[in-house]
Structure of Nucleoside-diphosphate-sugar epimerase:
Amino acid sequence: MTSDDVTVAGQRALVMGASGNVGACVTRHLAAGGADVRVLLRPTSSTRGIDGADIDRRLGDPFDPATAAKAMADRDVVYYCIVDTRAELKDPAPLFATNVEGLRKVLDVAADANLDKFVFLSTIGTIAVGADGEQVDEDTPFNWAERAGSYIESRRAAEQLVLSYAAERGVPAVVVNVSNPYGPPDWQPRQGMFVQMAALGKMPFYVRGVGSEVVGIDDAADAMLRASVRGRVGERYIASERFMTHRELVTTAADAVGARRPRIGIPMAVVYGFAYLADAIGSVLPVQVPMSRQSAFLLAHTSPASHAKATRELGWTPKPTEGFIARAAEHYVQRQQAGV
């Protein structure tokens, strides 16, 4: 699955977070590329994304230093893909417990592990936002901290922690800032929620005037693998193919499976209204609604980003994301028809 100019054959890899969509895809790419792959999963973690792959599975708490050290022993590269993405949480404590404090425990182990690389899965959300659609890159100063909310705050803190361990503790860390990834199998869709709804004919509307950076799931994994071989320690690399409007996203998904196109364009104000209602419900009832003012804000607050650095230094050339969205839509429909 890797390109001809980069190989992971023989690489002794540990994937932490292989139950997630990106982590599972990284695992599959490594196994297909001839790497010696080990994954560390909690006993309760889903393995559907890696079932059938020729890998060494270890079970345990990744934030337990002894467990992490044992899993990391004799490994060349760690791919760290553990992340809590629940921007809608009323209480942000779990975000920081996983995204920052759990990571800190793993980095302490990595500092003594004699690794070649520690490839950290970060997010496009830690990149700046350009004014009036201006394109940004890894070096554009972050400019929306006061509006970012707890999820982005936790991801920025995580990224800064990784870079500090690279500078001060000798961890050979490389950061990959992945945008919204699309593609099968995506067993637990979050970014893929709108694609899934459109494919299943449950998305009559699109949101006007907004969009996001997108990337195919296989290209996201390829960027991670390339970072393990060519990435410079202490550097960040944007892994995103292009900016896509919300209308393009859901229309591509619907067209792929012959579903009715979402035809009603609603303003972002309506989404914010629903988000305020969701927050109100969550404040009085013991439920967690998968929408909030903060997650709505993240939907609207984005801009085009350049992947030129990843192309120049990693040799990363992503394919059009439309094809990955179409494949994801087909899989969602197939799974519904199979009752899976």
In short: Residues 145-168 form the longest helix (24 residues). The two ends are 27 Å apart (CA to CA). Residues 18 and 27 are 7 Å apart (CA to CA). The chain has a mean pLDDT of 92.
